[in-house]
């Protein structure tokens, strides 16, 4: 997805939020915004928003010396997420269509991440998602939900590349990966995390803490961008990206980076921003399982 | 009020909105945002937001040749506002405290302006405001409402300077000015409008169309900023500003520009942005009648 003009105000919002989280003084915050401003004229809109995010976090690191402003938040939420794991497993086990429930929970992880940043009541939201009779996701919010296609592609896929999003979602991803493996043990599932910290994206240690390595191979994409920007990925990752029979992509950042790529990608995310909702043609807040074909 | 860092993303939002209204192509819109970006580093935060708005509208005028993107919108809303005038007068006439009702209606004009830009249901809102038994403003939204002080200052004021905000509010201002004159005909009321177009701010012709000159003297502040930035006002205006016994200031822009000045200003506005709400210490959407004393 290209960068829309509406993304530009948002770049400054993000920069300010991350600068504050990095403990920058007000003077340094202004300096960071100044530096971001100077990059705007040279930033071509054909680049996706994750490429600007990379620039922004680079500036923050340079100005504050803090390369991982979200470190503490991630640690805390990793623990919270793990404590939920048994409940997620129970929900999948008791559901009529366990794969569907696992897919829904994987997206629910993305909703919760949104909630944390937007003072949504997480405990209440989690309670609703986990309530046994409920579907993990409200039916009316599933405006684009290519589950049939997902199931069919999955059946025939041998190598599956799973692109992680935020650290706190990893445990939800683990549940989906375990469900895929439960029905077909020989599947080769590779879970790709970021190489270096960017926002609250999952890194190697987050994936390990959530127990992914018990069920999938963890690799690094080589990136420090929120979203899998192919031109910046490591060669090793790109090889797998090209060979995979199916790619499961979590979160908005990965959608922004890969929505125009020519591979069998299934995008699982909540449409959290109006620009993406417009691009996908759904309502803000809708839950998306999208197989975008060129 | 100084510019807060949160205002910076908003500058870009405003620039984009106005660029589109000016009919700029997408390419020109990006060029406008680039130019705004280049001004950020040199913009000191001690300047208020209206000074940045002046820069933004200057860039748009230079890039598109359109010096008044809101012209058509203003024309339309001037007509709408005038059609409401008899109903406003009736409401004041039938109320228990006619001055209070007139003050409330003057602020209601500011709410309606907000509604127009934020797809609030104007007809419904107007209907609610005009409903005879209702107060024009919901009691719970009046978090800061120094009416007693306003009434007392008004009683002793001979020269009153009334600072206009948006064009569509002028007819609401006329009702308040007429109510003030009804009880004390010798009062000298001066209604200040902007010299040149900026956003949808009231100009001389808007004030005339709304019939202000029947009850007050219209002057220009000499400005093309949304908000009365004293350092940019005409000498003639400043003379009146200093001599006035009471200043009635409409809208957020005037609050941003004058909140730290050393004159008896009463600010009437709706807190439409979170930064202002925080500065004033009220909730977003609250209705304010504030006598700020240094």
Q: State the distance separating the first and last CA atoms of chain A.
A: 12 Å
Element-by-element helix/strand order of chain A = HHHHHHEHEHEHEHEHEHE
Compute the number of strand runs of chain A. Answer: 7
Q: Within the CATH hierarchy, at the fold level, what is the topology of the largest domain in chain A?
A: Rossmann fold
The biggest chain-chain interface is: A-B, 18 and 18 residues
Helix/strand-derived class of chain A? alpha/beta
* Total domain count of chain A: 2
CATH architecture of the largest domain in chain A: 3-Layer(aba) Sandwich
Question: Tell me, what is the CATH class of the largest domain in chain A?
Answer: Alpha Beta
List the helices and strands and how they pair.
Two copies of one chain form a homodimer.
Chain A: H1 7-21, H2 26-39, H3 49-64, H4 71-93, H5 98-117, H6 122-130, E1 144-145, H7 147-156, E2 159-163, H8 170-183, E3 188-193, H9 204-209, E4 217-220, H10 235-243, E5 246-250, H11 251-258, E6 265-270, H12 274-280, E7 287-291
Parallel strand pairs in A: 1-7, 2-3, 2-5, 3-4, 5-6
Antiparallel strand pairs in A: 6-7
Helix pairs in contact in A: 1-2, 1-3, 2-3, 4-5, 4-8, 5-6, 5-8
What's a quick, concise take on this entry?
Two copies of one chain form a homodimer. With 294 residues, the first copy, chain A, is an alpha/beta fold.
Description:
The structure is a homodimer of 294-residue chains. The first copy, chain A, is α/β, with parallel strands linked by helices and 294 residues long. Chain A folds into two domains: 7-64; 71-291, Rossmann fold. Chain A contains twelve helices and seven strands. In chain A, strands 1-7-6-5-2-3-4 form a seven-stranded mixed sheet, with helices on both faces. In chain A, helix 1 packs antiparallel against helix 2, helix 4 (71-93) runs parallel beside helix 8 (170-183) and helix 5 runs antiparallel to helix 8 (170-183). Chains A and B meet through helix 1 and helix 2 of A and helix 1 and helix 2 of B.
């Amino acid at each position: 997805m290209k960068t829309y003009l509406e993304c530009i105000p948002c770049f400054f919002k993000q920069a300010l939020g991350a600068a504050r989280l990095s403990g920058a003084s007000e003077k340094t915050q202004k300096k960071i915004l100044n530096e971001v401003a100077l990059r705007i004229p040279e930033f071509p809109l054909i680049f996706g928003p994750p490429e600007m995010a990379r620039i922004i976090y680079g500036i923050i690191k340079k100005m504050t010396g803090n390369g991982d402003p979200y470190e503490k938040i991630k640690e805390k939420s990793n623990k919270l997420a793990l404590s939920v794991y048994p409940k997620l497993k129970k929900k999948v086990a008791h559901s009529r269509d366990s794969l569907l429930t696992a897919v829904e929970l994987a997206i629910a992880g993305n909703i919760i991440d949104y909630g944390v940043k937007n003072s949504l009541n997480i405990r209440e939201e989690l309670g609703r998602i986990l309530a046994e009779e409920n579907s993990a996701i409200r039916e009316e919010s599933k405006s684009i939900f290519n589950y049939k296609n997902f199931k069919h592609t999955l059946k025939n896929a041998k190598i599956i590349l799973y692109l992680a999003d935020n650290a706190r979602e990893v445990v939800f991803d683990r549940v989906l990966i375990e469900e895929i493996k439960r029905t077909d043990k020989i599947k080769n599932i590779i879970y790709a995390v970021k190489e270096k910290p960017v926002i609250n994206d999952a890194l190697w240690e987050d994936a390990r803490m959530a127990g992914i390595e018990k069920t999938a191979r963890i690799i690094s994409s080589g990136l420090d961008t929120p979203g899998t920007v192919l031109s910046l990925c490591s060669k090793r990752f790109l090889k797998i990206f090209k060979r995979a029979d199916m790619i499961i992509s979590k979160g908005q950042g990965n959608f922004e980076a890969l929505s125009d790529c020519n591979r069998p990608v299934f995008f699982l995310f909540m449409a959290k921003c109006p620009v993406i909702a417009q691009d996908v043609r759904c309502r803000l807040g809708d839950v998306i399982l999208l197989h975008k074909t060129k």
